[in-house]
Specification:
Layout (H helix, E strand, L loop, with lengths): L1 H26 L22 E3 L18 E3 L44 E4 H4 L5 H13 L5 E3 L22 E5 L7 E5 L2 E2 L2 E2 L1 H15 L8 H6 L1 E6 L2 E4 L15 E2 L10 E4 L1 H4 L9 H4 L3
Antiparallel strand pairs: 1-2, 3-5, 4-6, 6-12, 7-8, 9-10, 9-12, 10-11
Length: 293
């Protein structure tokens, strides 16, 4: 009897205790969720992450070691396009190119070096036509209209008494003293008056022409004579030759040396080199020569 009473009391105690425990979830404060982890930094415009908590049934006792961890939904921001920095461009400094100024030396043909006489048989020497001589004759007559006549070809010897073969003979079969007129290498510019009887106007005109040929141009003495291929001038008892060093400094008719050659007081005599007679010197490529084809 006593045993049953004890069992009854224990059973009542258990029932009361169980009822109390069943009422605890409704009245007691449920432990709060675990602290959310630190917010992941995002761009200023990205929304804060949301926390989703798993619900615990009300009749289940939550143990600290079995608490459900919150699930954090992290919104990944869209990739931000980072502008590519402009490629550095190497700036190459422009260095001005300095071209040294080389003074231009005016071109002038070499002085003619042909003999001032011809040697040989008549058929070999006498040449009535040389293109350079003809063009020069036309130029002189055009440039100085007061010239009375221009002449060139004459198949004869030089007239220089006392010198062998230089007797002025016309058309000998053979000679060692042919005039350059015979070879088509000479021009006579008749400026006025008769032989040994010149006129003042003729002398002045002859001086003007000769000084033009011997004058300085572009800093070069005898420039025009050289480019035309004129290697010797005989005029009014005076002479000039490009083959003499002292004559290369002469730049006017008045400065020519006396030579005693007579019969040239009414016409300057111009002896041409073979290149000048054939029109091969630089003057024949000039604008002046283009007027006299």
């Amino acid at each position: 009897m006593r045993r049953r009473l004890i069992l009854l009391i224990v059973g009542l105690f258990i029932l009361v205790t169980a009822g109390a425990l069943a009422a605890c979830p409704a009245n007691a404060q449920t432990p709060g969720p675990a602290q959310a982890p630190a917010e992941v930094p995002t761009s200023a415009s990205a929304p804060a992450p949301t926390v989703a908590q798993t619900a615990v049934p009300p009749d289940t006792a939550v143990q600290p070691d079995t608490a459900v961890q919150p699930q954090v939904a992290v919104q990944v921001p869209a990739p931000v396009e980072v502008p590519t920095p402009p490629q550095s461009q190497t700036v190459v400094p422009v260095v001005p190119v300095v071209v040294p100024v080389v003074p231009v030396v005016p071109f002038a043909d070499a002085y003619g070096g042909d003999l001032n006489r011809e040697i040989g048989w008549r058929d070999e020497v006498c040449r009535s036509y040389r293109p350079g001589r003809v063009r020069l004759m036309r130029f002189f007559k055009y440039a100085w209209p007061a010239i009375e006549e221009t002449s060139g070809y004459a198949c004869r010897e030089i007239n220089q008494p006392g010198v062998e073969d230089c007797e002025g003979e016309w058309e000998p079969d053979y000679s060692t003293c042919w005039s350059t007129h015979a070879a088509g290498r000479a021009i006579d510019l008749m400026v006025g008056g008769g032989l040994n009887d010149p006129t003042p106007e003729g002398v002045a005109l002859g001086d003007e022409i000769v000084s033009y040929l011997l004058g300085i141009e572009n800093g070069v003495p005898n420039y025009r004579a050289r480019i035309m291929g004129i290697q010797q001038i005989l005029w009014n008892g005076r002479c000039w030759s490009g083959q003499r060093d002292d004559d290369r400094l002469v730049t006017s008719a008045a400065a020519m040396r006396g030579c005693g050659i007579a019969n040239h007081d009414n016409h300057p005599h111009l002896t041409l080199s073979n290149a000048g007679a054939d029109g091969l010197t630089s003057w024949f490529s000039s604008a002046d020569a283009a007027l006299f084809p």
